[in-house]
Amino acid sequence: MKIIRSVAEAYQFRQSKSIVGLVPTMGAIHAGHLSLIRQAKHDCDIVIVTIFANPMQFSNSEDFASYPNSIDQDLDLLKKEEVDIVFCPSVSEIYPDGFTTSVVVEKFSDLFEGKSRPGHFKGVTTIVTKLLNMFLASKVYFGQKDFQQTFLIKKINVDLNINSEIIILPTIREFDGLPASSRNILLSNNERISAGVLYTALERIKYLTTFDSNSIYKEVKNCIAKEKLVELDYVKIVDPNTFCELLEVNGDTIILIAIKVGDVRLIDNLFIKKVNNRIEIDYRFERYC
Ligand code: PAF
Question: Does one domain contain both 186 and 146?
Fold first, then answer.
């Protein structure tokens, strides 16, 4: 496994005749990242993992400062996975003096997660565009947990003619259904137990007998309200193809949810649809790509 730190070294892969797969991360490698890396190893000739905690996507400096950093452990894990290249640039390598350009997906970046975290998606779409430009990867891998992020990355890929293949893999869950996330290790023991309600709330939707957005919202809100350490930020019922909010469930629907457990922000989502007058939950996202 080779570790590279400069953009000049990254450019070497642009000429590659091999299938180059990119797995962008901010480090604190977890089971979700490993599933992306394993799929990339299966699909590609060269797998590049990037580790860069991108300051531009954090709206407040405290959140950035507390973001987990476990670089030595990460490198050990990536070596075991036989990753070919790890790109770990410094902040000044990515954003040198004089850097002023950013990438914003109009209309969709300020919704939902973007409303709660102003500027977050501008940071995400800017860094992902930069990484895709640097490596010109054939395929790039993301997890479904960050559904709005994947929607925006698919937009930049088309709108800016990047033409990489965007591969979105199902969310990997821990024992109680909580999605694997770098932020989970920031939870105290009690907070970790309470955080399990994120999945419980989503699962409860399948027992509903009315399919309007108000019923879903009420069910999730009541379930989350039982956990004193958990605060609901939003629940949204959305068409996964257009990203418009829906008033009721009929065809393809995604429920997006965000909570705060103490200082830790967690998100999750669930695909549902109405089949024979009941709600069927469906975690497999691939069919929507
Ligand atoms: O999902 C993440 O970890 C980040 O948003 C990403 C895609 C690596 C960009 O910094």
Answer: no
Q: What is the pLDDT of residues 71-89, one digit of tens each?
A: 999 999 999 999 999 999 9
Decide if 57 is inside a domain.
yes
Separation of CA 125 and ligand 1 centre (Å): 9
Give the helix ranges, DSSP H, for 136-196: 147-159, 189-195
- Whether residues 131 and 201 fall in one domain: no
pLDDT at 279: 81
Model-level pTM?
0.95
Number of domains in the chain: 2
Tell me the best of 22, 30, 54 to mutate to test the pocket of ligand 1, counting ligand atoms within 8 Å of each CB and taking the most: 54
Residue 143 sits in the same domain as residue 204: no
Neighbours of 9 (CB within 10 A): 15
Same domain, 12 and 128: yes
Nearest to 230 by CA among 242, 238, 222: 222
Is residue 177 assigned to a domain? no
- Looking from the CA of residue 182, the nearest atom of ligand 1 is 3
For residues 173 and 179, the answer to whether their CB atoms sit within 8 Å is yes
Task: Name the residue of 50, 109, 127 whose CB sits within 8 Å of the most ligand 1 atoms, as the mutation to test its pocket.
Answer: 127
